[in-house]
């Protein structure tokens, strides 16, 4: 890979609970880059939580805001960007990230996703039914899109530092 490519924003994508925010923060520290979380930026811009936005306006409205915020974050040229699990599924966002950033798909087993998302039950998409079934379906539906990411790292519930080391290895 060319050095130029490594200069691009590293954009973490993958399902809820895979560790995009925690791993992203550590990755940024390890690379001495800044870190920004897209969901936090959406909440700041809207002055509401993601759950409140879903509840008040629905998912389509959230996706519009998410698309705009990620476009802005790409413009601002942050070092490491964590995205919400659905962001990279939007064709427009995906095209932008693939063209101007380096997408890193964090992938792990279903049990880990279920366990981690159950610790803090704030995700509106997991409240509409059985979280395991929903995550299983989302994994199946979304994996083909996530697979378009330039880098693919399987974490399977291992320590975040190992995931960080794997990503850095992939950049070399
Ligand atoms: C979503 C994932 C969430 C958040 C929203 C929708 C999704 O982010 O953006 O609840 O569609 O997968 P995390 O992946 O950070 O939980």
Written account of the structure:
Its main location: cytoplasm. Pathway: Metabolic intermediate biosynthesis; chorismate biosynthesis; chorismate from D-erythrose 4-phosphate and phosphoenolpyruvate: step 5/7. Belongs to the shikimate kinase family. InterPro entries: P-loop_NTPase (IPR027417), Shikimate/glucono_kinase (IPR031322), Shikimate_kinase/TSH1 (IPR000623), Shikimate_kinase_CS (IPR023000). The chain has a single domain, classed as P-loop containing nucleotide triphosphate hydrolases (Rossmann fold). The chain has 9 helices and 5 strands. The longest helix is centred in the middle third of the chain and has 18 residues. Shikimate-3-phosphate binds next to loops. The site of shikimate-3-phosphate has 10 residues, from loops.
List key phrases describing it:
five-stranded parallel β-sheet; alpha/beta; Rossmann fold; 172 residues; 9 helices
CATH topology label:
Rossmann fold
SSE order, one letter for each helix or strand: HEHEHHHEHEHHEH
Q: Estimate what percentage of residues fall within beta strands.
A: 5-15%
What strand order characterises the main sheet?
Answer: 2-3-1-4-5
Main sheet properties? 5 strands, parallel
Ligands present: shikimate-3-phosphate
Mean pLDDT, rounded to whole units? Answer: 94
Radius of gyration over C-alpha positions, nearest whole angstrom: 15 Å
Q: Please state the overall shape, judged from the principal axes of the Cα atoms.
A: globular
Helical fraction:
55-70%
Low-confidence segments: none
Q: What structural category characterises the helix and strand content?
A: alpha/beta
